[in-house]
Amino acid sequence: MRLAALLLALAGPAAAQTCGGPFPAFLDGLVQEATTKGHDSATTRAFLATANQDQSVLAADRRQGIFQRPFLDFSRAVISAGRLQNGARQYERHRATFDRIEQDFGVSPGVLLAFWALETDYGAVQGDFNTLDALVTLAHDCRRPELFRPQIFAALELYERGDFDPATTTGAWAGEIGMVQMLPEDILENGRDGDGDGKVSLKTSPQDALLSGAAMLRSLGWRAGEPWLQEVTVPDTLDWSLTGTDTRLPIADWQAMGVAARTGPLTDGLDASLLLPQGRNGPAFLAYPNFDVFFEWNQSFTYVTTAAYMATRLMGAPVYDAGNPDPGLSPDQMEELQRRLQARGRDVGDVDGILGAKTRNAVQEVQQELGLPADAWPTPDLLNRL
């Protein structure tokens, strides 16, 4: 359910079909494309010799209902006291590595600890899907071949280096490998030997995994030493149409409107967006520019906001003020809302029952049209009005 790189270049044209069709012909097309990229055909065939389609990968790809849960439910479910305590222990255990990361990359320990926790429970659950099978299955499937096909050739390059065994390398259903779940292309570009043994071992070395994750965050645009998310209080008189990830204003402007940090000071000199994961009556956060980098790791608003919030908790922030949000919609109601928004000409992306960025934007627009508080939180009342 998690994809480590979301802005991959499209694969070049293959000699055979780029997705779908008979699977043996698809593999032949991979060999032909690899040859045009300079790989030895015999080596490529050896690499692909054990490749099989895995229907359980497709089932996992279609089954991502966890993201239908609202922020409060999701964050409470995954940010347990045990995970926070384990995070504190891991920080002390690997303090030298975290200090090195802060010095070299400017990434806070809390950010990497949060990803480490949410991706693999600090390395305990890294996934048991065969990585090559996962990649060829998802590349053959025509839903997102442009994302997964390049990863096959990246895995081939790792294989040529002796760093990937197609028969035994395992990880998540979407092809990510290791403690912080990185795709092969990201390992090629950002893999780091953190423990000094001459290898990049993301499955067994916390030092390698953490340093590689930090390198990837920097490559995705992380701004050294800057914050990413901060809980705030907001006045009832706020113009709610200014909230959401699409609007970014200087901190001074937010302060002038009555937005204040719940603890500590706001960071002057930066722009930020005001996030209301469950509307104006729920928790509120200012999202600084580094928050955007979380979306390069994963595209789910709920997951990203939870990861960013957990990172602040791991660095000492208090539990959020949950407030008293208005009731939300069930997955079935959310799908019906998406259909009704589509009927009004709004782009909601897929009708999947998930409150993603496009659906939030559409909700906010129709709230403004109907004269409702435009906080992008869909309620039964909104659904009835539509």
Gyration radius (Cα, Å) is 22 Å
Number of strands: 7
Annotation field: number of helices: 17
Which outline best applies? Answer: globular
- Unreliable runs: 1-16
User: What series of H and E elements makes up the topology?
Assistant: HHHHHHHEHHEHHEEHEEEHHHHH
- What fraction of residues sit in β-strands? 5-15%
**Helix/strand/pairing category:** mainly alpha
What is the terminal-to-terminal distance? Answer: 31 Å
What is the averaged pLDDT score? 93
Order of strands, widest sheet:
4-6-7-3-5
Could you estimate the helical fraction of the residues in percent?
40-55%
- Give a quick account of the main beta sheet: strands, pairing sense, barrel closure: 5 strands, antiparallel
Would you give an account of this structure?
The chain is globular, with a radius of gyration of 22 Å. Helix 8 runs antiparallel to helix 9 and helix 10 packs across helix 11. It contains 17 helices and seven strands. The protein is mostly helical and 386 residues long. Among the domains are: 86 residues, no CATH class; 55 residues, no CATH class. The longest helix has 17 residues. The strands form two sheets. The protein has a five-stranded antiparallel sheet with strand order 4-6-7-3-5.
